[in-house]
TrEMBL record:
<dbReference type="InterPro" id="IPR011990">
    <property type="entry name" value="TPR-like_helical_dom_sf"/>
</dbReference>
<feature type="domain" description="CHAT">
    <location>
        <begin position="613"/>
        <end position="890"/>
    </location>
</feature>
<dbReference type="Pfam" id="PF12770">
    <property type="entry name" value="CHAT"/>
</dbReference>
<dbReference type="InterPro" id="IPR019734">
    <property type="entry name" value="TPR_rpt"/>
</dbReference>
<keyword id="KW-0812">Transmembrane</keyword>
<dbReference type="InterPro" id="IPR024983">
    <property type="entry name" value="CHAT_dom"/>
</dbReference>
<feature type="signal peptide">
    <location>
        <begin position="1"/>
        <end position="18"/>
    </location>
</feature>
<keyword id="KW-0472">Membrane</keyword>
<keyword id="KW-1133">Transmembrane helix</keyword>
<feature type="transmembrane region" description="Helical">
    <location>
        <begin position="900"/>
        <end position="918"/>
    </location>
</feature>
<protein>
    <submittedName>
        <fullName>CHAT domain protein</fullName>
    </submittedName>
</protein>
<keyword id="KW-0732">Signal</keyword>
Length: 925
C-alpha cells in the first residue's frame, strides 16, 4: 500500500553552527561521512549521525543535535525503520520541550518544528494511521501556506509540497480519488510556480497521479504519466525506488489491459533493481502473482502471494495490520477465481481478523466482506446463504460508517459502485432461501438490501437540507455555506469555459473547497442533530411502503445485478419476489429498443416485437391482477432507459402498457416517502419559452447550434389556459428572471433546449434567452445544487432532460435529478430528443388533466392515450412521439383541481357577502 512513501522523502540542507575551529572540522568530517551513507547504508548513516549528536551534546550545540536527529529520521524513513523513527521522534519531542527558550531564538525554528511534524506524519503514514498522519501534515500546511514568499526558503517549500503529496496519497489509498486529484493538481501547480526546474519532485507527483488514474481504471492515462516519470528515473539513476514503484504499477496496468508481454517486461525491470530485503519486495511478489493468475498458473500465483504474506508479517512482526489484510483478500480472490470457494472464505476471514476493531474498518474491510459474500453464495446451501446475509449486514454497517468520510459526490459514487456486489449477494441469498423455505420475511430483508443500494447521494442531499432546517445552525453560518457553494460552482464554470491558463483560479477553487469541507466538518461536529439527520441511514421498511400504497397501486422495485434482475412487488395486501436471469440477448434488446424508440423512422412492428419480449420478462409474471391500474416503478441499471409506457403487452399485435396502466417512477421507496412528506404549494405556474435563432454557438460546440423551437411559445400559452401563473417568452425568458421568480410558484414549466454533456454530466444544461453572455444563458446541473426550488412539479419540456451518466443504484445523473436536489417533489422529463409539435399537444393535455384533479401519473397517461387515439392511423402513433416523457417522484394530484379552487373561492365570497348583507339588514331593522 505504501510503496510510494520513499518517493515523498525530502532532503534538507543541514547547516552546522560553528563554535570553534576543531569542532567545525570534526563536524564537517562527520556530516560528510554521514551524507555519503545516507539512503545507501542504513547502519553506517546511523553511526555517523549518532556521533554528531554525541559531540553536539557535549558542546551544548542543540541546533546541531536537532539536525542530526532530523537527518537520522530521513534515513529511517527511507528504510522503513519504524522503531528507529519512533525513538528519534520521542527524543526530539523531549529536546524541543526542554530547550524551548533556546529553540524560540533560532531563525531556523520554523524549519525544525515543521521537519519534526513531517517525520511524525511519515511515521503515522507508515503505520497506516491516516487520521493522525493527515492531521500532522495539515499542521504543516496551516503553518506554511499563509506565509509570504519572502519567508519561504527552499526547505520550507519542499515541506509544504510534500505535505500536499502525502495527504493526496492517503486520499488515494482510501478511495477518495477526487480529493486526491485536487491535492496532486494543487501541488503540481505549486512546484511549477516555486521550483519549475525540480524535475524530481514533478515526476514523483506525476507517478502518484498516475497511480490514482490506475485505481480509477483510466489505464491509458495512467501509463502515459508513469512512462514520463520512469523515463526521468532511468535517466537520473538516483531514484531507484521510483523505478521499482513505477515499473510495478505499469505492470499492473498492463495486466488489467490483458497485455501480459508488457506486464512481464516491466516486472523484470523492477526486479533488476530489487532484492528480497527491499521494502518493495512484498509488493513485487503480489504483482508477480497477478501475472501468474493471468497466465492461468494457480499454484505459482498462490506461492507468490504466500511469500508476500510472509514478508509482510515479518515486517509487522506478526502484529495486525491492514496491509496483511489486503494480501489475505488477494489470496481469497485468487482462490475464488479458480473455484476454491471454501479456501477463499477462510482467507477472507483471516483478513477480517486483521481489521476486526470496528473503528479501524475502511475500504479494505468492505472489500473483504463483499468478496466473502460472493464466495459464500457460490458454495450454495441454506447455511451458507444465512452466512451471506450476516456478512452483507456487516458490510452495510461498514458502508454506513464509511460514507460520512467521503465528502465528494464523485468519490461516494466510486464507493457505492465498489460495494454494489455486496447488495447483489444479499438479494441472491435472500431469494434462494425464500425459494426453498417460503419464509416471506426474507422478501422484507431483500427489500431492505435493494433500498440500501439506491439513490444514496440524492437521499443524503434531501436529508442535508432537512438537517440544515432543523439543527438550529446560526444564520450567518448557513449564509457562508451557501456563499461557498455558489462561489465554488461559479469558479468551476469559469475554469471549464476558459481556453487560457487558469492556475490562479484553480488555486482559488482549491482554497474555497477546503474552506467548505472544513465548514461542513465543523457543522457535523458542533451540531449533533445536523449530523444525525444528514447521515440517517434508515431506509423505509417494506411494511411501511405497503401501507402507503392506495388500493390500485403496485410498487415494483428492480435491482439490476451482474447475473440477474431482482424484482420485489408490493401492493396493500401482497408482496412477491422474482428473479430474472440476465443474458447478452436481454441487454442487447434493451439497448436496441432504446435506439428504436428514439428514432421516429424505426419499424413499429419490429419495435413492438422487441418490447413485448421485455414486457414478457419484466412485467408479465408480475401483473397478475386487473386491479393494478397504477404502477410505481423503481428502475435500475439499463432499465432506466426504458419508458415502460411504450412496452407492448400484446403477443400478436400492438397494445401499449400505458393504455391500461398509469406509470410513475422513483429512485427508491425511501426517496418516495421523503417526497410525499412535503406540503403542497399554491398551484400557480411559472413557464419559460425562450427563442433561438440557430446562429449562436454553445459551450459544447460538438452539439452544434441551438435551433429554433417553433411551438414552445404556443405550448406555454396553452398551458396557462389550465393554470394561473406567469409566462416569460422570447427575450424575457432569461435565467435571471427564472432565478428571481421561481420561489413564488408551485409549478415550473421549461420549454427550451437541454444539452446533455456526456463527458462532464454536471455541466449538462438548460438554455435560456440569449443575452450575449453564455455563462448567464445556461443553467447547469451544478447550478441546481445551489437553488431552492420547493416546487410540486417541474416539467422539463426539452430534449434528453432525463438522460445522464448512468450510475449503479443512483440512476441517471441528469438535469431532472438536479431539480430533485433543488427541492422539487416531482419532475416530468424526457428520455430522448423530442418532437416540438407533438410535445406541445401532449403538454396541453397533461396540464388540462392536472387541472381536473388527476394524479400526475394518470394525467400523463391520459394525455398519451388521447394522443394515441387521435393518431392511430398515421406515423405519429410511433412511441417516439408520445412516450419520451416520464413522471418521477411524488405523483399525487395537485391537491384540489384548479377549477374547483375557483369554485370554492367564489362560493366563499357569495356566502360571506350574504352573511354580511343579512347581518347589516338585521342591524338596520
Amino acid at each position: 500500500m505504501n510503496r510510494y512513501a520513499s518517493l515523498l522523502l525530502i532532503l534538507f540542507s543541514i547547516t552546522a553552527f560553528a563554535q570553534k575551529a576543531s569542532y567545525d572540522t570534526q563536524m564537517d568530517d562527520l556530516f560528510s561521512k554521514a551524507y555519503e551513507h545516507l539512503y545507501v547504508n542504513k547502519d553506517s548513516a546511523y553511526h555517523y549521525f549518532n556521533e554528531i549528536e554525541v559531540l553536539a551534546n557535549k558542546n551544548q550545540d542543540w541546533a546541531t543535535v536537532f539536525e542530526a536527529l532530523i537527518s537520522s529520521n530521513r534515513n529511517a524513513g527511507a528504510f522503513y525503520d519504524l522503531d528507529k523513527l519512533s525513538g528519534n521522534l520521542n527524543r526530539l519531542d523531549s529536546l524541543f520541550l526542554k530547550h524551548k527558550p533556546y529553540l524560540d531564538t533560532l531563525p531556523e525554528k520554523r524549519l525544525y518544528v515543521n521537519s519534526l511534524l513531517y517525520d511524525k506524519g511519515n511515521y503515522y503514514f507508515q503505520l497506516n494511521n491516516y487520521r493522525s498522519s493527515r492531521q500532522t501534515f495539515g499542521q504543516i500546511i496551516d503553518s506554511l501556506e499563509p506565509l509570504p514568499n519572502t519567508e519561504m526558503d527552499e526547505e520550507l517549500i519542499d515541506l509544504l509540497s510534500v505535505s500536499y503529496s502525502f495527504i493526496a496519497k492517503m486520499y488515494t489509498d482510501e478511495g477518495k480519488y477526487e480529493l486526491a486529484q485536487q491535492y496532486y493538481d494543487k501541488n503540481i501547480r505549486y512546484i511549477l510556480q516555486k521550483k519549475p526546474n525540480d524535475l524530481a519532485s514533478l515526476n514523483t507527483n506525476y507517478s502518484l497521479l498516475a497511480e490514482l488514474y490506475g485505481k480509477k481504471g483510466q489505464y491509458e492515462n495512467s501509463n502515459a504519466y508513469f512512462k514520463k516519470a520512469l523515463g526521468f528515473y532511468l535517466k537520473d539513476q538516483t531514484g531507484i525506488n521510483g523505478i521499482i514503484a513505477t515499473a510495478h504499477n505499469l505492470s499492473e496496468n498492463y495486466l488489467a489491459l490483458s497485455k501480459t508481454d508488457s506486464a512481464q517486461y516491466y516486472l523484470k525491470l523492477a526486479k533488476n533493481y530489487l532484492n528480497e530485503t527491499h521494502h518493495f519486495a512484498s509488493y513485487h511478489h503480489r504483482v508477480q502473482a497477478k501475472l501468474e493468475q493471468k497466465m492461468n498458473n494457480y499454484e505459482l500465483a498462490l506461492k507468490e502471494l504466500n511469500f508476500a504474506l510472509h514478508l509482510e508479517k515479518e515486517k509487522w512482526k506478526n502484529a495486525k495490520n491492514e496491509s496483511i489484510a489486503i494480501i489475505y483478500n488477494e489470496i481469497g480472490m485468487l482462490q475464488a477465481a479458480f473455484g476454491q470457494y471454501v479456501s477463499a472464505v477462510a482467507n477472507y476471514n483471516l483478513g477480517l481478523e486483521q481489521v476486526e476493531d470496528f473503528d479501524s474498518r475502511g475500504t479494505s474491510t468492505l472489500k473483504l466482506l463483499k468478496n466473502k459474500s460472493v464466495s459464500l453464495n457460490k458454495l450454495g446451501n441454506n447455511d451458507n446463504y444465512k452466512a451471506t446475509m450476516e456478512t452483507v449486514n456487516l458490510g452495510i454497517k461498514t458502508l454506513d460508517t464509511l460514507k460520512p468520510s467521503f465528502r465528494s459526490k464523485a468519490d461516494q459514487l466510486f464507493l457505492i459502485e465498489d460495494a454494489f456486489p455486496l447488495f447483489e449477494s444479499g438479494l441472491e441469498a435472500a431469494y434462494q432461501l425464500y425459494a426453498s423455505t417460503s419464509d416471506d420475511s426474507l422478501i422484507d430483508l431483500a427489500f431492505r438490501y435493494s433500498e440500501k443500494s439506491k439513490s444514496v447521494l440524492l437521499l443524503e442531499a434531501l436529508l442535508e437540507a432537512k438537517a440544515t432546517q432543523f439543527a438550529n445552525i446560526p444564520n450567518d453560518v448557513l449564509e457562508r455555506e451557501s456563499e461557498l457553494k455558489s462561489e465554488i460552482t461559479y469558479l468551476e464554470k469559469q475554469i471549464k469555459n476558459s481556453e487560457t491558463d487558469q492556475s490562479d483560479q484553480k488555486d482559488a477553487l482549491f482554497t474555497l473547497k477546503e474552506e467548505y469541507r472544513q465548514l461542513v466538518q465543523k457543522l457535523e461536529v458542533d451540531y449533533k442533530s445536523y449530523y444525525d439527520l444528514k447521515y440517517n441511514t434508515t431506509t423505509v421498511s417494506l411494511e411501511v411502503s405497503q401501507k402507503s400504497l392506495s388500493k390500485h397501486q403496485l410498487l415494483i422495485s428492480y435491482f439490476y445485478g451482474n447475473k440477474a434482475i431482482y424484482a420485489i412487488t408490493l401492493n396493500r395486501g401482497k408482496k412477491e419476489m422474482f428473479r430474472i436471469p440476465i443474458d447478452a440477448d436481454l441487454e442487447a434488446n434493451i439497448k436496441r429498443v432504446y435506439q428504436m424508440l428514439s428514432d421516429p423512422k424505426s419499424d413499429v412492428m419490429a419495435l413492438g416485437s422487441d418490447t413485448y419480449k421485455i414486457y414478457e420478462l419484466l412485467l408479465k409474471p408480475i401483473l397478475n391482477s386487473g386491479d393494478q391500474k397504477k404502477l410505481i416503478i423503481i428502475p435500475d441499471g439499463l432499465l432506466n432507459y426504458l419508458p415502460f409506457s411504450a412496452l407492448n403487452t400484446s403477443p400478436g399485435g400492438i397494445r401499449y402498457l400505458a393504455e391500461n396502466h398509469a406509470i410513475g417512477y422513483v429512485n427508491s421507496a425511501t426517496l418516495l416517502s421523503e417526497l410525499e412528506e412535503r406540503q403542497p404549494k399554491e398551484h400557480t405556474i411559472l413557464a419559460f419559452a425562450p427563442s433561438f435563432d440557430g446562429t449562436v454557438s454553445v459551450s459544447n460546440p460538438d452539439r452544434g447550434k441551438l435551433l429554433p423551437l417553433p411551438n414552445n411559445k404556443k405550448e406555454v400559452e396553452q398551458i396557462l389556459t389550465s393554470f394561473h401563473g406567469r409566462a416569460y417568452i422570447d427575450g424575457e425568458a432569461s435565467l435571471r428572471n427564472f432565478k428571481s421568480q421561481l420561489a413564488s410558484f408551485g409549478m415550473v414549466h421549461l420549454a427550451t433546449h437541454a444539452i446533455f454533456d456526456d463527458t462532464a454530466p454536471e455541466y449538462s444544461y438548460l438554455a435560456f434567452a440569449q443575452n450575449g453572455n453564455a455563462a448567464e444563458d445556461l443553467l447547469y446541473v451544478a447550478d441546481l445544487y445551489n437553488l431552492q426550488l420547493d416546487a410540486d412539479l417541474v416539467t422539463l419540456s426539452a430534449c434528453e432532460s432525463g438522460i445522464g451518466d448512468l450510475k449503479r443504484g443512483e440512476g441517471f445523473l441528469s438535469l431532472a435529478r438536479g431539480f430533485f436536489y433543488s427541492g422539487a417533489a416531482s419532475i416530468a422529463s424526457t428520455l430522448w430528443k423530442i418532437n416540438d409539435a407533438s410535445t406541445t399537444t401532449l403538454m396541453t393535455s397533461f396540464y388540462k388533466n392536472l387541472s381536473k384533479g388527476e394524479a400526475k401519473d394518470v394525467a400523463l397517461q391520459n394525455a398519451q392515450i388521447e394522443f394515441l387515439d387521435n393518431n392511430r392511423d398515421n406515423a405519429l402513433s410511433h412511441p417516439y412521439y408520445w412516450s419520451a416523457f416520464v413522471i418521477s417522484g411524488n405523483t399525487l394530484a395537485l391537491s384540489l383541481p384548479y377549477n374547483w379552487i375557483w369554485f370554492i373561492l367564489v362560493t366563499l365570497v357569495v356566502l360571506v357577502s350574504g352573511f354580511l348583507y343579512f347581518k347589516t339588514k338585521k342591524g338596520v331593522n
